[in-house]
Amino acid sequence: MAAKEVGAKLKHKFEMPRRISPLHDAFHHITSRTDKTDTLDVKYINAVKGRGVFAKRTISKGQFVAEYRGDMIDDAEYQRRRSLYHPMCAAFMFAFKWRGKTWCIDASQEDESFGRLVNDEHRGPNCRIKRIDVNGKPHLCLFAVDDIKQGEEITYDYGGEDCPWRTQMTSPTVSGVALDGSCPFLSANQTFDAAGPSDSQQMTSTTAHDMTSGC
Ligand SMILES: C[S@@+](CC[C@H](N)C(=O)[O-])C[C@H]1O[C@@H](n2cnc3c(N)ncnc32)[C@H](O)[C@@H]1O
C-alpha cells in the first residue's frame, strides 16, 4: 500500500468518533464533574413539575445519561440538614445505603447540574440509577433503560408509594428556562438501597435497587 494511502487510512481512523463504553462515559463525567450538554437540555415544564431534563438527541438504551451530583454526607449530617431545610430543599436530598450505612447526596445547591433536575416517573421511566464507585466513593448515575427519542423527557422512578404528584393532573406546557433560583419544589426524599460490598477499586458499578421510602 502506498504511503499516501496508509496516511489517508490513519487520518480517517483518528477522525472517526471513538465509541466509549457507558461505564467509561460515566467515569469521565464523574471525574470531570461535567454534564452532557450536547445531549441534554433543561426546560421549564409547568408550575407543578417545575423544570425537567430533556434529550436534545437520541440516546441509546444502556447509555450513561447524567450523574445525580451533590454533597455526599453521612446519616447524621443528613438528619441534621433535613431538620433545618425547607421542604423545597429537602426535595433534593437523595438518601441511599452503601456499605451497610445510610448516606445522602445533598443536591439542594443550584449548581446548574442536570441530574438533580430529573423528574420522577414510576410507570415507564426511561432511566434508572446505578451506583458507580470511583476511587472508593459512590456516585449515583442515571443510565437509559430504553432508547430515548430526541425531545423526550429524562425520567427515573424515585421509588416509594406516596409521591403526591402521582395522583395529580399536570398540564403539558414546556418551554426553555434558565438555571437559576433556589430549591423551588416540594418535599421529596428519594431513598434507595445501593447496599453491598464495594472494594476500593478504581471503578466499579452496582445496580442501585430497592428504592424504598421515595418522594
Ligand atoms: C429533585 S427535584 C426535580 C427537579 C424539579 N422539577 C425542579 O424543577 O427543580 C424533585 C421535585 O420535582 C417535582 N417532581 C418530580 N417529578 C415530578 C412529577 N412526575 N410530577 C410533578 N412534579 C414532579 C416535585 O416537586 C419534586 O419534589
UniProtKB/TrEMBL annotation:
SUPFAM superfamilies named in the record: SET domain
UniProt cross-references to PROSITE patterns, sorted A to Z: SET (PS50280)
Example GO molecular function: histone H4K20 methyltransferase activity
InterPro entries: KMT5A (IPR051760), SET_dom (IPR001214), SET_dom_sf (IPR046341)
Top-level lineage group: Eukaryota
Signal peptide segment: none
GO biological process: regulation of DNA damage response, signal transduction by p53 class mediator; regulation of transcription by RNA polymerase II
A GO CC term attached to the entry: nucleus
Domain SET: 38-159
Entries under Pfam families matching the protein: SET
Region (Disordered): 194-215
Protein name: SET domain-containing protein
